Amino acid sequence: MSECCAPSNRNGARDHPGIRSEAFQFDWSEDYALLGGKTVKLQVAHTKLSHSKAFAVRAYLLQTHEMLFDALTNAFRVLGGVPQRGIFDNMKTAVDRIGTGKARQVNARFAAMASHYLFAPEFCNPASGWEKGQVEKNVQDARRRLWQPMPSFPDIDALNAWLEEQCIAQWDDIQHGGLPGSVADVHAEELASLMPVGRPFDGFVEHSKRVSPTCLVTFERNRYSVPASFANRPVSLRVYPDRLVIAAEGQILCEHARIIDRSHQGPGRTIYDWRHYLAVVQRKPGALRNGAPFLEMPDAFRHLQAHLLKRAGGDREMAEILALVLQHDEQAVLHAVELALEAEVPTKTHILNLLHRLLDGKPIDVPPIDAPQALNLDCEPEANVLRYDSLRDGRRRHAS
After folding, report:
1. Could you say which of 172, 193, 214 is where a domain stops?
2. Is 387 inside any structural domain?
3. Which of 60, 177, 241, 333 is deepest in the core (most CB within 10 A)?
4. 375 occurs within a structural domain
5. What pLDDT is stored for residue 398 in this prediction?
6. Which helix (H) or strand (E) holds 50?
7. Could you write out the three-class secondary structure of 178-217?
8. What's the mean per-residue pLDDT of the chain?
């Protein structure tokens, strides 16, 4: 039996610290935190170096492939390198089928991640948690050190930043036990023998999707918009822990923040990006009036729309102004619209003039022209069209 899986006592404490940089152990646990004022059940990833006992803890809402990949990527970053072996239980995100003895059919994406970081994955026997006793004990210790009392944060990102700081701080406070000094002292010696992390693994899970006629793809009961040119066409959906990336034809089409709702109460949400529908309103400008995607436009665009739709042809003019976003920087167009609204001249011509001045670096505020006194009129002409009637009877040769 290798030193990494050497026998341990029933409390999960290893009999000796193992070979430097030889292995790490990984496990999941369930804990609770207050996020945004609500109690949330979390899936917590624990990674622990077998030699130095340095550990990293990170929380997620789900226990899925992309969460596992992200947990290990961040653990290697915090721990400062990658050991030669990784010890896991037979979790579904890593093992597709358990064979006889140590034979395992490993998930293809998990195998790709292990090959990327160059560690050899090993899996414990079923119901044999003591084979990775260090991390099992770390789950118990973390519950006392980190989760009692229940931590409270505005969101999961703030919680994970705090967990990372706490883990590193606790390395100094915890004595190693098997070797002189603290966990931080032994970890500092182990760092040089760890493999460098290198480029992070692109840990997404890919799904094939077909875009609906309304330019949406569905994932986990929620719908996300796609550029209108890809309606009714196949795309690739790449799932990350915090975002969804949609790709097709060798290019990234768009990206959305991922929504995770485990309650399954009520219908899913629809997340629009109004820019994806600009090609539609060029053909059907009337869609601007009641189109749900355009409720998400910036306030300046919506105020301009309220002005333009009051007059005939305003929807067409609004569609042409929005189309400027496809050719110019969106912030520049938005600034031009704001200036036009401030000047109370919300027209396409004036917005184009302001936009070109912004792009060319010309001053927006043109100083007034101070005409010399010699050019002032002593007798200003009158707007009297009746004077032209005198030409009809031949009495005058001109109307002035």
Report:
1. 193
2. no
3. 333
4. no
5. 61
6. none
7. CCCCEHHHHHHHHHHHCECCCCCCCCCEEEEEECCCCCEE
8. 86
Taking the C-alpha atoms of residue 336 and residue 339, their distance in angstroms, rounded to an integer, is: 5
Peptide bond into 149 cis (omega under 30): yes
Report the C-alpha gap between 229 and 304 in whole angstroms.
26
CB atoms under 10 Å from CB of 298, counted, come to 15
pLDDT block averages, 10 residues each, the chain of length 400: 37 46 89 94 94 94 94 96 92 86 87 94 75 78 91 96 95 91 93 93 95 94 94 95 95 94 80 91 83 88 89 88 89 91 88 88 72 71 75 64
Residues 353, 307, single domain; the answer is yes
Are 233 and 93 within one domain?
no
Q: Which two tokens stand for residue 126?
A: 């079923």
Residue 385 within a domain? no
250 in the same domain as 169: no
Residue 96 sits at the vertex; the CA angle it makes with 94 and 268, to the nearest 5 degrees, is 75
The pLDDT tens digits of the residues spanning 31-71 come to 999 999 999 999 999 999 999 999 999 999 999 999 999 99
Question: Do 40 and 182 sit in the same domain of this protein?
Answer: yes
Helices 183-190, 156-173: inter-axial angle, 10-degree rounding: 100
Domain housing 314 = 279-360
| Integer Cα distance of 178 and 53 in angstroms | 10
- Per the CB < 8 A criterion, the answer to whether 273 and 254 are in contact is yes
Reduce the DSSP state of residue 293 to 3 states and report it.
helix
Question: Which residue, of 169, 193, 217, is where some domain finishes?
Answer: 193
Instruction: Examine residue 122 and state whether it is found in any structural domain, yes or no.
Output: yes
Condensed to tens digits (0 to 9), the pLDDT of residues 187-227 reads: 999 999 999 999 999 999 999 999 999 999 999 989 999 99
The CATH number that applies at residue 96 is 3.30.420.10
Question: Torsion-angle region of residue 40: left (phi > 0), alpha (psi -120 to 50) or beta?
Answer: beta
pTM: 0.78
Total count of domains within the chain: 3
